[in-house]
Design goal:
The protein has helices at about 30-35, 40, 80-100, and strands spanning about 5-15, 15-25, 50-55, 60, 70-75. The chain has about 100 residues and is an alpha+beta fold.
């Protein structure tokens, strides 16, 4: 190998997905890839050490070392807790069944 690796960094908003391709030296970390790829220029709201990060869907820390052809993913915080949403939906369903309604 030539001492370089090719990686991708992806960040998605509800209406826009951004993909950055870059070449880094072997031994580069997830944090270095994010700093160098340009995502912080386009999306300054991204906080490397506060955001959840992954490689191909598996959570990793910012200091994880990358391998050739890895895809770094920057995850946004959830707007609602999925468990809480399901609980509320279940409660609403029970309330509708009990009420009988006007048919």
């Amino acid at each position: 190998m030539n001492g370089k690796i090719n990686i991708e960094v992806v960040y998605a908003l509800p209406d826009e997905q951004t993909l950055f391709k870059q070449q880094l030296p072997e031994g580069a970390t997830v944090a270095e890839a994010i700093r160098l790829c340009g995502v912080l220029d386009k999306h300054p709201e991204v906080e490397i050490f506060a955001s959840k990060l992954g490689i191909f869907g598996k959570l990793v820390k910012a200091d994880a070392v990358l391998r050739d052809r890895d895809r770094v993913e920057i995850y946004r915080p959830l707007l609602a807790d999925p468990k809480e949403v399901r609980r509320k939906r279940a409660e609403e369903g029970r309330a509708m069944k009990k009420g009988g309604g006007d048919a």
